[in-house]
Amino acid sequence: KRTMTLIEKDGYQDSVYLNAAKIFQGIHSEKRKDRILVQYGGDSVAPMLTFKDERSQRVSYELAFNALKYQDLLEEILLDSCVYPCQSIPDESTSLLVVMLYDLQDRKFQAREIFEEEEHVAEVRKIECYLYSFRTKLAAALARCRIKHGALSVECILPETVQKQEQRASALPLCVWVNTFKISLEDVFRDLQKAAFTKVESVSDFKHYTYCMDPHCHDVLLFPSSLKKELINLDLFTDYKLILQ
After folding, report:
1. Which of 22, 87, 121, 139 is the most exposed place for a label (fewest CB within 10 A)?
2. pTM over 0.90
């Protein structure tokens, strides 16, 4: 049985959405004035980012950059569905709208799992309720976009250069450093075995839940790249006993 904490496919904590939106506000692609259909408000002041921990920081940046990667598609969905513009949502909240839309479609428009101990952020909950109330229209708009582009998935809508970069990245194994200040290699092997991972000799032996030692660094483990989201939710990672490089 694998020990999990918060799984990204069930959504993020409110603070992650808020930080991701602030990051996205500063990195989103600016269009020519005659082509601007989605307004993002002013961003003259650098946003204040407050992260609970290293993992929160990492997923906030990942979410922001995923939204950036699909910015054109997300804007098209918002406009095509008539969900945007909305008088009750100011331009300063558009980044949050886009970031949360990316996550909503990534969850196949399913509701987010809310944790009781989670800090409540009113702005995030407002945008979440707004998007979820229009989930059918948003899903239909996404389907129309895929048909328009002849794409089997949203990944196929990305520019060819980006798709090739992602294919190359996905072929590389994940490098994980064993924090020997907190745990021994033997205990890592034991805990991974309990989580149903099998140690193999080399990368060429990789199947799904497998890993191997780095042939050059004895405190580095290699995993299939497809396991990234599952790995980072293991207690070994959330307790910083294993560090993703």
Report:
1. 87
2. no
